[in-house]
Amino acid sequence: MPPYEDSVKAPALVADFYSDCKFGYEGREGYRKSTDLAKFLECVRELTERGFLDPARTVFADLGCADGRVNVLMSYFVRASIGIEIDPDILSEYAERKQRLASKLQEARLPAPPDNIFLFAGNSLDPEAFDMVHKTAGVHFSGVDIFYTYITLHDLFAGKIAADAHEGALYMVYGFNKVLPRYEHLELIIPDLGSQGIAALYAKRT
Known about the structure:
This protein has about 210 residues and is α/β, with parallel strands linked by helices. Helix content is about 35%, strand content about 20%. The chain has 8 helices and 9 strands. A 7-stranded mixed sheet has the order 5-4-3-6-7-9-8. A two-stranded antiparallel sheet has the order 1-2. The longest helix is centred in the middle third of the chain and has 14 residues, at about 95-105. The chain is globular and about 50 Å long. The chain starts with a helix and ends with a strand. The mean pLDDT is about 90.
């Protein structure tokens, strides 16, 4: 496995590319929020250093993936990068942006995102959403190792993870600063993941 600094060159370009695509958006499902991928990469660094990411094994799921930007970045670090987005209009932006990104990566002679990204239109709280995931990607909800969300519905997602995820599954919540929520059956293991003052990491404990 290459050193982290080498393995992160392509994801760093991904983060830079999507930094130009952040904007406010009033959609049918409310205000749109964009993950700052540069800050997110520092979270990935800590996850990597702590041994939580294994490209041959780890399954990642963004429970509100928007245009799939987090999934594109995470595809370099995991076996499967799954995203579910409730607003199909936002999800439809994925393909065109990814095509432009591919051109930038090619120009920089950096590897394209692996072919392990699976995005779906649906509600992550609806069992039918993960029925689609299983049919296409072969992954059940209980097979996900790291769940991710940007605050929205964080408490409802926490309840589903506590009920249905496997023991030890991780839950990364982005967008918090000083006041961190507590969830039943989820242990706060890293209050400031990546030392960015922006994300907290929990683990399922029964």
